Amino acid sequence: MGAPKSKKSVHGRVSSTLERLEQLVGEHGLADIEHESSPETVEDSVRNLKKRVPAKTKPSSRG
């Protein structure tokens, strides 16, 4: 009974989020966004995440 309504609300939320993103990109421009997130900082954050999060392929020693 509630499934169709929830699907519609999720779709509505996604589309409204996309609209907001399009507005932000329209206001600030893609160049600004690309400039703010340089590849080096992205790579550094990925490295830091890998250090904090253990690899899922290894079996956990904490059984």
Automatic annotation (TrEMBL):
Q: Where is the composition biased (Basic and acidic residues)?
A: 29-38
Lineage: superkingdom: Bacteria
Spans annotated as Disordered: 27-63
Compositional bias ranges of the Basic residues kind: 48-63
Q: What is this protein called?
A: Uncharacterized protein
Organism this protein belongs to? Magnetospirillum aberrantis SpK
